[in-house]
Amino acid sequence: MKLNKKERKKFCSTILKNINVKEKINDAKSKFSEFLEIPQEVVSNYTKITCIEDTDILIEGYKKIVDYYDNYIKIKTNNLFVIIDGSNLDIKEITDSELVISGNIYSLNYKSDKG
User: Fold this and answer.
1) Domain span at residue 28?
2) Which pLDDT score is estimated for 61?
3) Quick one: 67 and 14 in the same domain?
4) Shared domain check, 76 and 55
C-alpha cells in the first residue's frame, strides 16, 4: 500500500494522537490509584507475582490456566505467560483474578505473549 505525502502525514498524525491518548489514560489511572491509595496493579492491567520461598506462588491478574499438570503449570495473564515447574504442584486457591499455587517449585519463568 503506497501513500502519498499528505496521506502519510495524516496517518502519522493519527498515530501520534492515539499514543497521546493512551499516555493520558495511563497518567489518569496512576493519579487515580495514588489519590485513592489503591495499588497500581488494581486499576491497570498489571500482573503481580508473589513467591513465598519455594512452596507457594500468588498470581494476581491472571486470565486463564493454559496447562495444568502435577509438575508443570502454564498461566496466561494480561500480557505474559507464567510457567511454573516443580513437583506436586496444586492450585490451592482460585478466584476470578487471583490464584495460589503450592508444591515444590523448582522454577518460575515468564515470557511476553506479544512475540
Assistant:
1) 5-39
2) 83
3) no
4) yes
17 & 52 share domain: no
For 43-86, the DSSP string reads HSS--EEEEETTTEEEEESEEEEEEE-SSEEEEEESSEEEEEEE
pLDDT in tens, 27-71: 776 676 667 766 666 666 778 889 998 899 999 888 899 999 999
The letter for the amino acid at 34 is E
pTM over cut 0.85: no
What cell does 33 get? 490509584
Q: Which of 6-10, 28-32, 95-99 has the highest mean pLDDT?
A: 95-99
* CATH at residue 106: 2.60.40.2000
